[in-house]
Write a structure and sequence with these properties.
The complex is a heterodimer of chains A (627) and B (303).
Chain A: E1 2-13, E2 16-28, E3 33-37, H1 44-52, E4 59-68, E5 71-72, H2 78-84, E6 89-92, H3 106-117, H4 122-135, H5 141-145, H6 154-166, E7 172-176, H7 184-201, E8 204-209, H8 212-218, E9 221-226, E10 229-235, H9 236-241, H10 246-254, E11 302-304, E12 307-309, H11 314-317, E13 344-363, E14 366-384, E15 389-393, H12 400-407, E16 415-420, E17 423-424, H13 434-439, E18 440-443, H14 447-450, H15 457-467, H16 476-486, H17 503-515, E19 521-525, H18 533-550, E20 553-557, H19 561-567, E21 570-575, E22 578-584, H20 585-590, H21 595-603, H22 617-622
Parallel strand pairs in A: 3-8, 3-9, 6-7, 7-8, 15-20, 15-21, 18-19, 19-20
Antiparallel strand pairs in A: 1-2, 1-4, 4-5, 9-10, 10-12, 11-12, 13-14, 13-16, 16-17, 21-22
Chain B: H1 2-29, H2 34-39, H3 45-55, H4 61-73, H5 87-122, H6 127-141, H7 144-158, H8 174-208, H9 211-218, H10 223-260, H11 266-275, H12 279-302
Helix pairs in contact in B: 1-12, 5-6, 5-8, 5-10, 6-8, 7-8, 7-10, 8-10, 9-10, 10-11, 10-12, 11-12
Classes of the chains: A alpha/beta (627), B mainly alpha (303).
Chain lengths: 627, 303
């Protein structure tokens, strides 16, 4: 159906040419699902754009063919390519929040391909759009078709996008991270829907994802990409259970798994090679623990059993696991959670926001407008012991972030008691929170927006030290060096700006900044969500080490239950602003009692455990459920 | 929404009241004795005194203001001290002519500005884009009276195609009427294109890079549909706001243009009444300009 043959793509940038793809060869067989897996910079989205003939103007294709049903998409006329797009090939994008046009009705956007490809009238296309919305499991498709994108939830938008891609009955569906922006329960529904459609319509799917658990649920075959090359390709279950290429091994080892608590995750050290000048030998060699003298020579894809692996020592490495480095924790400073007074106590905390106001009506003599409120934090009580990690999980909109910020009084609570390090802070004015601001800190999700781009790292880290007068001015540089050392960044990084660092390094700076005031409690608000798996593992390890060495307590907020399961001592589950369950991590993961927790856990895509039956199972159950 | 509009309308009224006080205050402070002006240089002090009493000029200022404002509300705008005609009909005529000029200019600014903006955005960083940028900047950077003179020299003096100044009513023939409008319109449009075209260009460039445009391309839609149906809708929002604000600016621009082209509209009336100390006309005219400005801004907020 789709054959990609020896495809190389380069992007012209200000800093030189970047080789995004290097002789990639792939084949998506009719009626099957091929998954492309890789971290950021692997080139997986470039494949999707190239297959659609949508490469940006900066892209050059020095070699390769993309054959769709025998015809080369790269050399055909622009008009012929346009006819193919949206008609025989459909594309579903990653972010349902930005790929729908905000000023057009859903029904128009779903049906418009039909108007231009099949000559439908606008009315007929709209009517067909309603049928398609119904087919992808949207309840009340008539009213949804008339709605604008901002009126729909993420899951509904993603369904609408899929409906739009299916409108003209394509033979090939390319999905670029279709569930990444969604909550796990919605993700499970979308995956079931796709599997359902594949069977019913005989679709061929090219599924692009960074999430190996998701891939396991949907793909027959998987190709692992690293730095623009395929490093391993084979049947999904084979590759995920018995990886051969060192990168695949590392990627799988870096994933935290529910029900298997390890001391530390296996991180992949180092970073992507410079793609302006890719090394001629193995591109993974600088990060590979198994690198040999032969790694400096160009590697080609070799058959290892039924699969293809780009590593000359593949045969030898078949059964060698990825080495797990154990960080040595100095025993003297390792602090175990003690029975002393809790560092955080929250009682009956409530916060509500006014969403909108209702119609005007009279209450006695005065006009009143009722407020439509949501309560993201609804009567929450919680204690955190010194050095304890409490994981906070829940879906988007459940109130996790609001709770974290309300505890730190970055958002003012409506009512309730907050006590931090024995001091009641909920009744004090902001001006009297000096001590609390020092004791309790926060690490944000996105270091790009939380680090001032115009300040060097030295200034960023020195500022809180100076602000709280923790060291005389002359000693601040030494303190900054010590902080960088603590988060394992080299000292010369102090003179860099945020944009000169990678995502993982920036997040280390974010953590160092939180640590600058020597706090006893840190709210970690989705600190690893924006990071790749291999980098995420290193940051999670760092947070675990810091807890052991400094005895800091965390409120670790994440939508990724596996990460929380790995790091947290206790886990709290939030749903619609209420804490539905809290308990030791092992118990919550292995024997959850609340139905919502059970639902949440069963939806998590896993890379291990018994393979899930594909398709149909939950689809039937979820049909007709508004998402 | 209704509550919002009501609140804004109340603000508009408050602004107009403030403006009227300001205008009245400033004009009464002017070193001009109205009675003296009416009667001419040879009037005796007794005659001036008598007329002052008759016109109520000896009353306290606030009484004069209330009388004037009350007249305004009942439709009596007073009488032009210079031309001995009621201000109302004179002002109405001038407003009609000025609205003709500004309205035409406004429509052309919107069409040409948005068109140039789209063209420049679609040819981002290519010669056409740079050409449009330079031309529109030149238009806004050089003062209007300069372009007015250039237009007169080129079209009236050299080519002789258009009259250099004046106005003909439509009853004198459509072509005669149009001929007198072309030159001032051209000058106004050129001076105001930059705002609209630059803003359309930048928001269009941004929109064309947004994911939903890539998604529209992935649906295989023709480029024309992508630009006009998907992109323009979203790119025009900021432009519409600026257009409404520009209408207010145009009302200010006509003072210069009407003077240069001797076009008998509101702008010229203002200048004329200032030069001749015709206070009732001046007060009424400025209040009208302020009202148009305030309403244009209100409209901009609503859109």
């Amino acid at each position: 159906m789709l054959v990609i043959d020896d495809l190389t793509v380069r992007y012209r940038t200000a800093g030189g040419e970047i080789e995004a793809l290097s002789s990639v060869t792939l084949e998506a067989r009719k009626g099957a699902t091929l998954a492309l897996v890789g971290e950021s910079g692997s080139g997986k989205s470039t494949i999707a754009l190239a297959a659609m003939g949508l490469l940006p103007a900066e892209a050059m294709v020095p070699s390769g063919r993309i054959l769709f049903d025998g015809a080369d998409i790269l050399t055909m006329k622009a008009e012929a390519r346009r006819q193919l797009r949206g008609s025989r090939i459909g594309l579903v994008f990653q972010d349902p929040f930005s790929v729908l046009n905000p000023s057009l009705r859903i029904g128009d956007q779903v049906g418009e391909g039909l108007v231009h490809h099949r000559g439908f009238t606008t009315e007929r296309a709209f009517a067909r759009a309603i049928e398609l919305l119904d087919e992808v499991g949207i309840v009340k498709p008539e009213s949804v078709a008339k709605a604008y994108p901002h009126e729909l939830s993420g899951g509904m938008r993603q369904r609408a996008l899929i409906a739009g891609a299916l409108a003209s009955e394509p033979e090939l569906l390319i999905l670029d991270e279709p569930t990444t922006a969604l909550d796990v329960t919605i993700e499970a529904q979308i995956l079931d829907l796709l599997e359902d459609l594949r069977i019913k319509r005989g679709l061929t799917m090219l599924f692009i994802s960074h999430n190996l658990g998701v891939v396991r649920r949907i793909a027959d075959e998987v190709a692992v990409l690293y730095a623009g090359q395929i490093v391993e390709q084979g049947a999904t279950e084979e590759v995920l259970q018995r990886p051969v290429h060192p990168y695949t091994k590392g990627l799988l080892a870096a994933i935290p798994r529910i029900g298997r608590r390890m001391g530390r995750l296996a991180a992949i050290p180092g970073r992507l090679p410079d793609l302006r000048n890719p090394p001629s030998g193995c591109r993974f060699a600088p990060r590979c623990p198994f690198a040999t003298a032969d790694s400096a020579n160009p590697q080609s894809l070799l058959a290892v059993g039924a699969r293809m692996v780009r590593c000359s020592s593949a045969e030898a490495l078949r059964d060698t696991p990825w080495p797990v480095q154990h960080e040595t924790v100095p025993a003297a400073t390792a602090a175990a959670p003690t029975a002393s007074a809790p560092v955080v106590e929250v009682e009956n905390l409530t916060k509500s926001f006014v969403l909108s106001r209702g119609a005007l009506h009279w209450e006695g003599w005065r006009p009143v407008r009722d407020a439509v409120r949501i309560k993201p934090v609804d009567g929450i009580s919680l204690t955190i012991a010194p050095g304890e990690v409490v994981g906070l999980v829940g879906e988007s909109g459940s109130g996790k972030t609001t709770l974290g910020r309300t505890i730190l009084r970055l958002i003012e609570a409506d009512s309730g008691l907050i006590r931090i390090a024995g001091e009641t802070v909920s009744d004090k004015p902001q001006s009297a929170l000096e001590a609390m601001r020092r004791t309790a800190q926060i690490v944000f999700q996105n270091p790009d927006s939380s680090l001032n781009p115009r300040k060097t790292i030295r200034e960023l880290l020195g500022r809180p030290i100076a602000r709280f007068g923790l060291a005389p001015k002359a000693e601040i540089p030494a303190r900054v060096d010590a902080l960088l050392d603590l988060v394992r960044l080299p000292a010369h990084y102090a003179d860099r700006y945020a944009h000169q660092m990678s995502g993982g390094e920036k997040q280390r700076v974010g953590i160092a900044r939180a640590l600058a005031t020597e706090p006893t409690f840190i709210v970690c608000d989705e600190p690893v969500s924006a990071l790749d798996v291999s980098v995420q593992a290193a940051i999670v390890n760092l947070l675990a080490d810091l807890r052991d060495r400094l005895g800091v307590a965390y409120l670790f907020i994440s939508h990724d239950i596996s990460v929380v399961a790995h790091l947290a001592d206790r886990v709290a589950v939030m749903h619609h602003g209420k804490m539905v369950e809290i308990g030791p991590a092992d118990r919550i993961m292995n024997a959850p009692s609340h139905p919502y927790t059970i639902k949440l856990l069963s939806a998590v895509p896993r890379v291990d455990g018994p393979p899930l039956a594909r398709g149909g199972v939950t689809a039937a159950r979820n049909r007709g459920v508004m998402v | 929404m209704a509550a919002f509009i009501t609140r804004r309308l109340v603000f508009v009224v408050l602004v107009l009241v403030a403006v009227s006080m300001l205008v009245f205050g400033v004009t009464t402070l002017l070193p001009a004795n109205v009675a003296h002006l009416i009667l001419g240089a040879f009037a005796t002090p007794e005659q001036v005194r008598a007329l002052e009493l008759k016109l109520g000029l000896t009353d306290p200022v606030w009484q004069q203001y209330l009388r004037w404002a009350g007249g305004f509300l009942t439709g009596d705008l007073g009488e032009s001290t210079l031309m001995n005609r009621p201000v109302g009909p004179m002002l109405l005529e001038a407003i009609q002519r000025s609205l003709m000029l500004t309205g035409l200019s406004f429509i052309l600014i919107a069409i040409i500005g948005v068109g140039l903006g789209i063209a420049a955005a679609l040819r981002h960083r290519r010669p056409l884009d740079h050409g449009v940028s330079v031309a529109t900047y030149l238009g806004i950077a050089v003062p209007e009276f300069f372009w007015a003179i250039v237009v007169i020299i080129v079209f009236a003096a050299w080519l002789g195609w258009l009259p250099a100044s004046g106005y003909e009513p439509i009853s004198a023939g459509v072509w005669e009427w149009a001929k007198h409008l072309i030159a001032p319109t051209m000058t106004l449009v050129f001076g105001h294109l930059a705002h609209v075209s630059r803003l359309t260009r930048s928001s269009m460039i941004e929109v064309m890079q947004s994911p939903y445009i890539t998604a529209a391309r992935a649906k295989g839609l023709p480029e024309r549909v992508i630009v006009l149906h998907h992109a323009l809708r979203n790119a025009l929002l900021p432009t519409i706001t600026v257009l409404a604000l520009d209408f207010g600016r145009l009302m200010g621009g006509i003072v210069v243009i009407e003077t240069v082209f001797a076009y008998p509209g509101l702008g010229r009336l203002v200048v004329f009444s200032i030069q001749n100390r015709d206070l009732p006309t001046l007060q009424a005219a400025i209040l009208v300009v302020a009202a148009i400005y305030a309403l244009a801004n209100l409209l901009a907020d609503l859109l």
